[in-house]
Amino acid sequence: MADGTMWKRLILALPLAVAPVASAGAQGYDPYYQDYGPGTESFVDDNGNIVTVDVYGRVIAVERPRERRGAARNDGDPLVLEGRRADTPPGGEYGLPGDDYQFGTDPFDQPIARQSLPAPGGFPDGTTTGSIETEPFPSGDGSYQPSVPATREGTTIPENNPAPKIAGPRGKNAKAEIAALQVILDRSGVSPGVIDGRLGTNVDKAVAAYTEMTGRTIDTTNPQALLEELDITGGPAVTSYEITNEDLNGPYVASIPDDYGHKALLPAMSYTRVTEMLAERFHMDEEYLKEINPGADFDRPGTILKVMNTGTNVTGAQITRIVADKGREQVRAYDATGHLVVAYPSSIGSTSTPSPSGTVEVARIAFDPNYTYNPKLNFKQGENDKVLTIPPGPNGPVGTIWIALSKPTYGIHGTPEPSKIGKTNSHGCVRLTNWDATELAKLVTPGVTVEFVE
């Protein structure tokens, strides 16, 4: 195959048009804090935190001056923005400094097949919903609370067993090639987290898991090798999707408040916009979805979008053992023969709220769960001092899945912020993207062991 044809088949050719980050209200910041590289901007928010954003306006660091200098912590809202991984070099999660992310000029040389949103599949127990509050709790009051403390989260625990860093694609087509790699991994059940066309520890650990699962090593620097893996795993990395009236009808909510009392008043913890919903459905970073569809009207039915062709979930496997690897911040699930079935990047504990150690079991699985807040049992959030029921939805505190563990208050669950998985600490539970948590929930049953390893 001629090189030009190969590039057309592999690379999603798109103009890179990124608006500069607005600097209105930005203040100078203390030089004590490190420089996160070109294109980033830092400012001091109303609480005195140093907030750093990248060129897309996404928060990549929130640093608290008093904590960095060893003073007392300033406890507050448990849903504050979480900080950048301490062991990630500047730019490490958002591409390599110096990479040229310009795109080519021609998309694939074959028609892009349209893809409809997949219909929800059946759950192992035949149910479609659940509630965290129905799980028995030692207090005897019938409620079950995930471990989410009221204090701000502690420092992310550095990975002590990181996956080998891969040498990924570089050059003008690098971002599209990295996205293709992420699709290959996602299709195989070894999730790279959100697909965003950027290298980082989530991609590193997924590549290592792919080798463990298949016995093959992907030459991540070779476009031809990526093309061959795409052909093996399901074809082009990108497909098309037409926005429907159903997509626009939602339901959606105007915004998600931070205060639990306000959350409890909502009809559901739904998506807030079409792009958020579609990005999660196709396992994408929301900003990347917008980037590869410049000028698209996401609020008009009939709009044709380019989306990631991630394939279908892993099904049919009998998971008997889950490993929650703290040293790699990854969840891996195995069958009775010891074969790796799925692997996901995860956020597992922090220095202030560590995850448990040893072996526990899956106790119960709740799909689309309610969330019961009880300040007497776990924590006090804001000024809320009464029991509250937060309705289900993808933007709920535990996302769309709660896999209760036999150790009370701990579980494996989803998240309202998928782009932060594997890059920030959790409150002690094991946090996955909603789509990864859903795939896992359909593969496990009560009694499956969960081993927390250091």
Describe what you observe in this structure.
It is a single chain. The chain is of the alpha+beta class and 454 residues long. It has ten helices and 17 strands. The protein has helices at residues 3-10, 65-68, 174-187, 201-214, 223-233, 245-249, 260-263, 274-281, 286-291, 434-441; strands at residues 41-44, 50-53, 59-63, 130-131, 238-242, 304-308, 319-325, 330-335, 340-345, 347-348, 358-367, 369-373, 388-390, 401-405, 411-413, 430-431, 449-453. Strands 9-8-7-17-11-14-15-16-10 form a nine-stranded mixed sheet, with helices on both faces. Helix 1 crosses helix 5 and helix 3 (174-187) packs parallel to helix 5. The longest helix has 14 residues, at 174-187. Pathway: Cell wall biogenesis; peptidoglycan biosynthesis. The active site is at 413 (proton donor/acceptor), 429 (nucleophile). Residues 1-24 form the signal peptide.
Topology of this structure?
Blueprint: H1 3-10, E1 41-44, E2 50-53, E3 59-63, H2 65-68, E4 130-131, H3 174-187, H4 201-214, H5 223-233, E5 238-242, H6 245-249, H7 260-263, H8 274-281, H9 286-291, E6 304-308, E7 319-325, E8 330-335, E9 340-345, E10 347-348, E11 358-367, E12 369-373, E13 388-390, E14 401-405, E15 411-413, E16 430-431, H10 434-441, E17 449-453
Parallel strand pairs: 4-12, 7-17, 15-16
Antiparallel strand pairs: 1-2, 2-3, 5-6, 7-8, 8-9, 10-16, 11-14, 11-17, 12-13, 14-15
Helix pairs in contact: 1-5, 3-5
